[in-house]
Amino acid sequence: MILYEYPFNERIRTYLRLEHLFRRLGELIPRSHPSTTTSPGDDLRGDGRGGPRRPQVGRDEGPERQKNTLNGYRGNPAIAESVLDEVIGTLDACFNTLNTIPGKAGQPLTENDWLMSIRSRASIPGGTCEFDLPGYYAWQHNTPDERRADLERWAATLAPLAESITMLLKLLRDSGSPQKVIAAGGQLQQTLPQGRTFQLLRLRIDEKMGLVPEISANRLIVSVRMMRQENDRMQPSTDAAPFELTLCA
């Protein structure tokens, strides 16, 4: 099964992009060959505007709002109080750590002249060649352990933000209940219930069907159109397509 996610607002879109970067960074740091190791001027550069921008997770998605939501489950016989207390404790720890960071998340990276010199060249095709950045070229010849230690040290400045984003998205994803639906004729339109504000759509589809969902959504309606790649072009499919849909609030 392939999982697709579609954000309903800009805040969740930012969270998903940051999660993608943090996951990619975590996958690349352990690699030993310099050609497959992440460039410190690439994944560590964040949103390209002076370092990774810290979303307002301490304000619009702060611990009090989340704790109030979670505390609403107390007394529910289907909820284990010990697990609930553990989740709330983890949430508090994440945000307390994040809120102690002065300035922007990852600010020490933007104050590192060597990293910023790499960042300034990383957006240029072939801009990190040895004749442009001899210092970076020399760094790539360090031992794998030395390079990994540097990357882990630089990435550690982003760890509180990564942990907070992971926690928020986990709570959001867990809030939805999957439902089986069918895109008749390759299309599905579903009106959203009034009085609820959804933030994330999750769609699972069997990869053997060879279909790619084209998703659009707002606070009123969700639309899914199935596409199929034919002759190097994406074409609308008219086949009935079953899939799993989850709306997370």
Task: Write a structural description.
- The protein has helices at 10-28, 63-71, 81-99, 107-110, 113-122, 134-139, 144-155, 159-174; strands at 2-7, 179-183, 187-191, 200-205, 212-217, 221-230, 233-236, 241-248.
- With 249 residues, it is α+β, with helices and mostly antiparallel strands.
- It has 2 domains: 10-172, Orthogonal Bundle (YacF-like), CATH 1.10.3900; 176-248, YacF-like domains (YacF-like, Sandwich), CATH 2.60.440.10.
- The strands form 2 sheets. It has a 4-stranded antiparallel β-sheet. Strands 3, 5, 6 and 7 form a 4-stranded antiparallel β-sheet that branches.
- Helix 1 (10-28) packs across helix 8 and helix 2 runs antiparallel to helix 3 (81-99).
- The longest helix has 19 residues, at 10-28.
- The radius of gyration is 22 Å and the shape is flat.
- The chain starts with a strand and ends with a strand.
- Mean pLDDT is 82; it is low at 47-54.
